[in-house]
Amino acid sequence: MSAPTYSRTHPATTGRTVTRLPWWALALPTLAFATLLTLILNPSDAHAASGDPAIAQVLERLRELITR
What we know:
By secondary structure, the protein is mainly α. The chain is 47% helix and 0% strand. The protein has helices at residues 24-40, 53-67. The N and C termini lie far apart (84 Å).
Protein backbone atom coordinates (compact mmCIF):
# COMPACT_ATOMS: atom_id res chain seq x y z
CA MET A 1 0.00 0.00 0.00
CA SER A 2 1.60 3.27 -1.03
CA ALA A 3 1.35 6.54 0.84
CA PRO A 4 0.29 9.68 -1.00
CA THR A 5 3.02 12.24 -1.70
CA TYR A 6 2.42 15.92 -1.28
CA SER A 7 4.09 18.55 -3.38
CA ARG A 8 4.73 22.05 -2.15
CA THR A 9 2.52 24.72 -3.59
CA HIS A 10 5.26 27.37 -3.18
CA PRO A 11 9.06 26.98 -3.11
CA ALA A 12 10.94 27.07 0.18
CA THR A 13 12.30 30.46 1.17
CA THR A 14 16.04 30.93 0.92
CA GLY A 15 16.27 33.65 3.57
CA ARG A 16 18.41 33.54 6.67
CA THR A 17 17.31 31.56 9.68
CA VAL A 18 17.07 33.69 12.78
CA THR A 19 17.96 31.92 16.01
CA ARG A 20 17.33 33.67 19.28
CA LEU A 21 18.78 32.43 22.55
CA PRO A 22 16.96 32.93 25.83
CA TRP A 23 18.62 35.33 28.27
CA TRP A 24 19.71 32.52 30.60
CA ALA A 25 21.60 30.69 27.83
CA LEU A 26 24.34 33.30 28.14
CA ALA A 27 23.79 34.40 31.74
CA LEU A 28 24.19 31.00 33.40
CA PRO A 29 27.57 30.07 31.86
CA THR A 30 28.82 33.59 32.56
CA LEU A 31 27.69 33.32 36.18
CA ALA A 32 29.30 29.90 36.56
CA PHE A 33 32.58 31.16 35.09
CA ALA A 34 32.61 34.20 37.37
CA THR A 35 31.85 32.05 40.41
CA LEU A 36 34.66 29.61 39.68
CA LEU A 37 37.07 32.44 38.95
CA THR A 38 36.16 34.07 42.25
CA LEU A 39 36.74 30.81 44.11
CA ILE A 40 40.14 30.36 42.51
CA LEU A 41 41.30 33.94 42.99
CA ASN A 42 40.00 34.35 46.55
CA PRO A 43 42.79 36.12 48.52
CA SER A 44 41.97 34.18 51.69
CA ASP A 45 43.02 30.98 49.89
CA ALA A 46 46.41 32.39 48.86
CA HIS A 47 48.19 30.16 51.36
CA ALA A 48 47.06 27.12 49.38
CA ALA A 49 49.07 28.29 46.37
CA SER A 50 52.38 28.02 48.21
CA GLY A 51 54.70 25.07 47.59
CA ASP A 52 53.48 21.80 49.06
CA PRO A 53 56.09 20.00 51.22
CA ALA A 54 54.87 16.63 49.92
CA ILE A 55 55.86 17.60 46.38
CA ALA A 56 59.27 18.68 47.63
CA GLN A 57 59.70 15.31 49.34
CA VAL A 58 58.73 13.40 46.19
CA LEU A 59 61.18 15.42 44.11
CA GLU A 60 63.91 14.81 46.67
CA ARG A 61 63.23 11.04 46.55
CA LEU A 62 63.38 11.10 42.74
CA ARG A 63 66.69 12.94 42.86
CA GLU A 64 68.07 10.34 45.28
CA LEU A 65 66.94 7.49 43.06
CA ILE A 66 68.49 9.04 39.97
CA THR A 67 71.87 9.71 41.65
CA ARG A 68 72.27 6.13 42.93
